[in-house]
């Protein structure tokens, strides 16, 4: 028989080995369970049930750290077999440093408290609300790859000999699983928002005229509208107020994005309703000013509305704080100096109208400020004068609205558009 | 944007600097409305160091102006740089807001 080497094993070594086997057993059990879902709510419940089970605890809870409010909020709470989440969620928040969970979050250290009655940090409100009696607890910080996620609390644990090192590893494991689920939830939310904005963008386009081109008698109109975000607050419209006349409206709602887009939808329907009742642009502007005076958050509208005789080119227009339009004639490009009132929806005012006579071959270029406030990569703005010079150089070319829009888009290449942009070109032939 | 509230001759004065746009106007609104809710009879705003204001920023002041007018208060702008004055003139907002050259003009008004 071959000689066998004698190995002496101490009781301490065996105890350590037993703990390691136990830890391995726990990890083998926990890993597949917490990796089984990316649903944050489901995962939290699984994590809590598992922690409660391992620690033979009476209750468990997770408080998540809200980075915006810098407070801890109850997310999941399990008392015995019952969920106390509904009782605590949204009702109790803790500041960093407040209560035991707040202390753990602030100091990023695991805390074992054998008798909470003797610990001044203990915050009694959760017990008061749930009717539960906390005697002892273990509170562990949940720290992910990007910092603090929250705090897990194991309440009245029956298992007293749990190795704290294993507990720390376990909570780290939980934290990463929760963080992965949070990333997953955030990316789903982003995708949902993206789809919502795509739908909003199509809906908003449906408020504008079906075709960006419009022709009545000797008048031809074409428009380009590019929102800075998926939706925007610029608008234009073509309308037939009375036989033989064409109405052209351009406007810019203050702000950008969804709020401006919603307001734009209201404005365009108010405009259509009122513009079909009169062939006086100033009456429409005065009515719009009254309607929009109750706008929320100081929102307002700059606008210009012109009614053109499609046979003679005689035009009446009313302007409310809107940038001047360009008048391109055989003699050159002029910046209009039409009398304007303040933007609509701010103060009571009486808007008036002015008259101009278009000659055959004349063109008008109406725009919103997003055209000349466009920024380039160096952060410089185009400026109104540069824009006018550009138009002057290209005045002889056709499809000027498109040429201007392309120029602004090229100018802003590499950076987001600073504002929504609309160009409306009116030709009289 | 940076916003501070200074006291000049015993009166609160809002001092602004930087860009006032859709990203910074919520903070401006918070400060402005907190002062206006206390029904201050007048609120001078120093634009001396403002580099840009967009329509979101202007809307914040319009909201403040409407609130102040409802109780007879006055929102007063001063030190407006030429570039911003041009925006206000362009959109005829110089007819809407009370505009002064400097703080002394505000106090003399």
Explain what this protein looks like in three dimensions.
The complex is a heterodimer of chains A (429) and B (109). With 429 residues, chain A is of the alpha+beta class. Chain A folds into 2 domains: 11-185, Beta-Lactamase (2-Layer Sandwich); 197-428, 4-Layer Sandwich (Phosphatase 2c, domain 1), CATH 3.60.40. Chain A contains 10 helices and 19 strands. In chain A, strands 1, 2, 3, 4, 5, 6 and 7 form a 7-stranded antiparallel beta sheet that branches. A 6-stranded antiparallel beta sheet of chain A has the order 8-9-19-18-14-15, with helices on one face. In chain A, strands 10, 11, 12, 13, 16 and 17 form a 6-stranded mixed beta sheet that branches. Chain A is elongated. The termini of chain A are far apart. Chain B is an alpha/beta fold and 109 residues long. Chain B has a single domain (2-108), classed as Transcription Regulator spoIIAA. Chain B is 40% helix and 34% strand. Chain B contains 4 helices and 5 strands; from the N terminus they run E-E-H-E-H-E-H-E-H. Chain B has helices at 25-37, 55-70, 82-90, 103-108; strands spanning 2-8, 11-20, 42-53, 74-78, 98-100. A 5-stranded mixed beta sheet of chain B has the order 1-2-3-4-5. The mean pLDDT of chain B is 94. Classes of the chains: A alpha+beta (429), B alpha/beta (109).
């Amino acid at each position: 028989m071959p000689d066998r080497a004698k190995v002496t094993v101490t009781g301490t070594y065996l105890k350590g080995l037993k703990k390691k086997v136990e830890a391995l057993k726990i990890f083998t059990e926990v890993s597949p369970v917490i990796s089984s879902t990316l649903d944050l709510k489901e995962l939290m419940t699984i994590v809590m049930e598992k922690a409660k089970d391992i620690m033979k605890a009476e209750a468990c809870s997770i408080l998540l750290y809200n980075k915006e409010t810098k407070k801890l909020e109850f997310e999941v709470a399990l008392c015995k077999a019952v969920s106390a989440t509904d009782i605590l969620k949204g009702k109790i928040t803790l500041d960093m440093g407040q209560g035991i969970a707040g202390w753990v979050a602030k100091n990023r250290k695991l805390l074992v408290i054998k008798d909470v009655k003797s610990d001044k940090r203990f915050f009694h409100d959760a017990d008061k609300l749930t009717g539960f009696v906390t005697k002892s607890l273990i509170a562990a910080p949940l720290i992910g790859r990007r910092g603090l996620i929250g705090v897990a609390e194991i309440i009245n644990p029956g298992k007293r000999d749990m190795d704290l090192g294993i507990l720390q590893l376990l909570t780290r494991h939980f934290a990463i699983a929760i963080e992965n689920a949070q990333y997953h939830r955030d990316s789903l939310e982003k995708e949902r928002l993206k789809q919502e904005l795509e739908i909003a963008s199509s809906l908003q386009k449906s408020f504008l005229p079906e075709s960006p081109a419009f022709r009545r008698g000797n008048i031809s109109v074409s428009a380009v509208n590019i929102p800075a975000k998926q939706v925007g607050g610029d608008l234009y419209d073509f309308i037939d107020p009375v036989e033989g006349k064409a109405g052209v409206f351009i406007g810019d709602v203050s702000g950008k994005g969804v709020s401006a887009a919603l307001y734009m939808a209201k404005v365009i329907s108010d405009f259509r309703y009122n513009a079909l009742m009169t062939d006086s642009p100033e009456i429409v502007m005065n009515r719009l000013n009254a309607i929009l005076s109750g706008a929320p958050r100081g929102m307002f509208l700059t606008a210009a509305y012109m009614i053109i005789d499609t046979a003679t080119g005689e035009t009446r227009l009313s302007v409310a704080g809107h940038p001047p339009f360009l008048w391109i004639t055989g003699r050159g490009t002029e910046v209009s100096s039409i009398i304007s009132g303040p933007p609509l929806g701010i103060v009571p005012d009486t808007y008036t109208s002015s008259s101009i006579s278009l000659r055959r071959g004349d063109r008008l270029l109406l725009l919103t400020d997003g055209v000349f406030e466009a920024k380039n990569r160096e952060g410089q703005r185009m400026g109104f004068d540069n824009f006018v010079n550009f138009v002057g150089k290209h005045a002889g070319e056709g499809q000027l609205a498109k040429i201007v829009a392309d120029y602004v888009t090229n100018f802003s290449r590499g950076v987001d558009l600073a504002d929504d942009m609309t160009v409306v070109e009116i030709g009289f032939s | 944007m940076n916003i501070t509230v200074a006291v000049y001759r015993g009166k609160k004065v809002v001092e602004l600097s930087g860009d006032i746009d859709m990203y910074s106007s919520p903070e401006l609104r918070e400060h402005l409305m907190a002062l206006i809710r206390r029904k201050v009879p007048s609120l001078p705003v120093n634009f001396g160091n403002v580099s840009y204001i967009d329509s979101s920023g202007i809307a914040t002041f319009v909201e403040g102006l409407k609130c102040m007018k409802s109780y007879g208060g006055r929102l007063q702008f001063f030190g407006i740089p030429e570039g911003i004055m041009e925006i206000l003139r362009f959109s005829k907002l110089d007819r809407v807001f009370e505009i002064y050259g400097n703080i002394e003009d505000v106090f003399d008004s």
